Amino acid sequence: MLADKVKTQIRTIYKGIAAALPNFVSRREQNYMVAEISKTLAGEYDKDRRIIVVEAGTGIGKSLSYLLGTIPLALAQKKKVCIATATVALQEQLLHKDLPFFLAQSELNFKFGLVKGRQRYVCLSKLEMLIGEDNGTQMAMWQTKPDQHQIEILQRLLRDYHEGKWNGEIDTLTVDLPDHMWQQISSDKHSCHRTLAAHRLCPFHSAREEVDSWDVLIVNHSLLFADLELGGGVILPDPEDVFYVIDEAHHLPNVARDFSSAQSTIRSTVDWLEKFNKTVAKLQSQISSDQVISPSQNLQDHIADMVRVLNQVGHFCDAQLKFFNNPESRWRFEHGQIPETLKIPAENLATESNQALKQFNKIQSILSESIKDGEIPKHLAEQLLTEAGFMLQRLESVAKLWKAIAKEDSPKGAPSARWAELISGKKSDYLFQASPIEVGFMLETMLWKKAAGVVLCSATLRALNKFEHFCHQVGLSLNDGSRYLALQSPFDYENNATLFLPQMRTEPTADDYTEELAEQILKLVEGEMATLVLFASYWQMDKVIELIEGKLKIPLLVQGTKPRQELLKQHYQLCDDNLPSIIFGTGSFSEGLDLPGDYLTNLIVTKLPFAVPTSPVEQAHAEYIKLKGGNPFIQLTVPDASRKLIQSCGRLLRKEQDYGRVTILDRRLITKRYGKSLLDALPPFRRVVE
Predict the structure, then answer these.
(1) Which of 106, 235, 520, 627 lies in disulfide reach of 13, CB 3.0 to 4.6 Å?
(2) Residue range 335-348, pLDDT digits in tens
(3) pTM for the complete prediction?
């Protein structure tokens, strides 16, 4: 039950916030959201299932609602609050604006901060080794032979760190560093050891020391899953002691799926395993204990077996090039079933890589003991640990992939998607990949059963006005004890905005649809000051630009031509100078783009956002639904399109006084049976249908 003291505290804090905010409007929806969150987490509805799913329309103030609904209760019950978001923008808003304001007004005593994953911090030992002498160790660390420019970039980074110009985080890099180079110098769990003096004060461990004292932790979705995959309570506090708030929860299914996927090459892995053998030999020569002999010999035997089987797989793929003869150079294995010829090699690779992992872990333990006992000099110890950690990380990736490829799918659930891609180059290679199709069962085990309580929220969680699609994706159900709340936006959609469906000669499937799009856009932007046009593909956007060039006197701001923030800055400036501005963007501009007031009054959606299942995972999911007698279009495509269309239309009204027009240039909303459901799920705009 929610204690009276906590109820009173929440009411008092709310009054304080209302008094501190100019023009604050008390909203029934916001009050209801706060009450339902706190009651659910206190176990008033279900003592075992303290989970609430909240769709909170724009303008309700969901951040303030979940802070008020969770923090006072968590402090009273000696629990922590972990807020997981999908975007950096929301993390920064919470860190620099929402939480400092809430702390000041609530008069509660709590600490908060942003937790970043290890990979966001540099490993100084790796950095020093990569720019060290041109010897075997340096070459073993680099995935490809470095050029002088790369070495100079890393030398500057190290200099900037020691001079205090850089704090060792990826977000504050002082040089332009490609992703593949950052991956080689970032911290990882294997080579970063607090037992060594040099690592105790490294950027990662320095940052981690603060985390234990925080009551409210801000993380991204990926870091949340990194902790859950380790069993929970490793990076973050124990799930049993945490109230999780998963904001932007509509991203959760895809993040969970991506996190559970695995990939590994064939021939590059063979090349790398040969380097691995040299590392094993080096470790054996440096460790005086005889205990290292047996695991080293066993490991080298497993590596030899892996190399032999990987070469077999490579030769098999070479003989099957017809399956890779498509635009993606991809061979997707139907229903997740790998060819019969590959089954025994896959099982052997799963077994051998797992055994190799066990043996190498034994060697690492012996190495750690030798370092602790002072048998290995400190400068050499760091080098060996870093190199061993790098190798262990790669070996884990290989083991994860082949375990997923060889695994027998349960007949009760969806199969995994499995596929291989041909990588062309001087030496052709094959990238094997595997991913679960559905992740609900995994979330049930990792999070729903373990957490003290969970709040899932977003402005768009329902599809076609129902929670069922989201529930299925994340492993919840409407009758499992979880709470569901759909709160309408307080905006006056009917009086402030118009949904316009103009007459069109063609539908998106017609050949000359793109030409008509260009005609319509030219008409619709005439006399308008702030326009956003959302396209379903880059291809169509580029075609329309070709067709309207020379006919449009206003300069276009096109996604992809400049960084997003720079485009928006130009748009703001034009609007502030009372000059017309037009932004052309694709699907990624339909979410998280905030153009309030006069910065957007004319929104044009060119096409219903039906996703073509191009990724192997989406194709496998559609294939599975067909196999079960279902209709992938109705069960997957339409619900996803509904959510995306709501997000797109949500770009127009960002504040209560905003106004404007949404135009959708897709007559399927009128002509197709599913159109009415899509229309009815949109906000209640005033409608004009030609």
Answers:
(1) 106
(2) 999 999 999 999 99
(3) 0.84
